[in-house]
Write a structure and sequence with these properties.
The protein is α+β, with helices and mostly antiparallel strands. Helix content is 46%, strand content 22%. Strands 1, 2, 3, 4 and 5 form a five-stranded mixed beta sheet that branches. It starts with a helix and ends in a 12-residue tail after the last helix.
Length: 255
């Protein structure tokens, strides 16, 4: 069949399906007095899909990371006990969260450039280094994932796997404040402070605790899945749940 014929046939099939769905909706409207509104809701869901859940970050702050021109840095920190379980947890989790946010068209500052720069600054993640990173990369938001707990072995067993994690997801912005004059300042000092650029300090504008256990009911035997595969599966699951805090998504949607 020629390409034009294939395209025409595809369009006809699409139009036929849409027509059938519209007819179903009409029937549902006519039947509504007898069967209630559930039929209409069901047909509308077939046509449009399940409604989106608004990002928790947007609900809490009224801000949207998808706003034009907004740039985001993603960082992750964890305690030594978590790194003893898996030394790469900070890099892997921030990488997977970044990948999901990019998929949703959120503009992420190049994570490799950020990691290299942070290492050159001593590798410490604190308010001072975050403020410098925001200025260095002209970012609007820093998503900081602070892990308090991470493990993927069942407690007291190296032969069973069960993921456990707990922590807080923060969003940090730089806030400007005017240089306040002291009562004892003279006229020149007051004038200098008035001319000086406003001070900028990092401020947490959003914080959300999270925790997970996977699988919930019973651990996985090590002979059923490799350690590497289970660890990746669990980190992916964590990244899914954390990333959804920052973009609208459908109920039960998987990446």
């Amino acid at each position: 069949m020629e390409p034009k014929s294939v395209l025409r046939a595809s369009l006809l099939r699409g139009g036929f399906l849409q027509t059938r769905l519209l007819r179903l909706l009409l029937v549902a409207v006519l039947m509504a007095p007898a069967s209630g509104c559930q039929i209409i809701i069901g047909v509308l869901m077939m046509l449009r899909g399940r409604p989106l859940i608004e990002a928790d970050f947007k609900q809490q702050t009224g801000k949207d990371m998808l706003d034009e021109g907004k740039r985001v840095i993603v960082l992750c920190t964890s305690p030594d006990v978590a790194k003893a379980e898996y030394s790469g947890i900070d890099v892997d989790l921030s990488t997977e969260i970044t990948r999901r946010l990019k998929h949703e068209k959120i503009k992420i500052v190049d994570e490799h450039a950020v990691a290299t720069w942070m290492d050159d600054q001593g590798g410490q993640i604190n308010d001072e280094s975050i403020a410098r990173a925001i200025k260095k990369f002209d970012a609007d938001y820093v998503i900081l994932i602070e892990l308090e707990e991470f493990a993927y072995h069942e407690e007291n067993s190296q032969e069973l796997f069960r993921g456990r994690s707990r922590g807080t997801a923060h969003v940090i912005m730089l806030k400007s404040s005017k240089n306040k004059a002291n009562p004892e300042d003279g006229p020149e000092a007051k004038a200098d402070k008035a001319k000086a650029e406003p001070k900028t300090t990092p401020k947490r504008v959003y914080s959300r605790d999270f925790s997970s256990t996977y699988p919930v009911h019973q651990p996985v035997q090590s002979d059923a899945v490799s350690e590497l595969a289970f660890r990746k599966q669990y980190v992916d699951r964590m990244a899914d749940e954390i990333a959804r805090l920052f973009y609208d998504h459908r109920p039960g949607e998987d990446f």
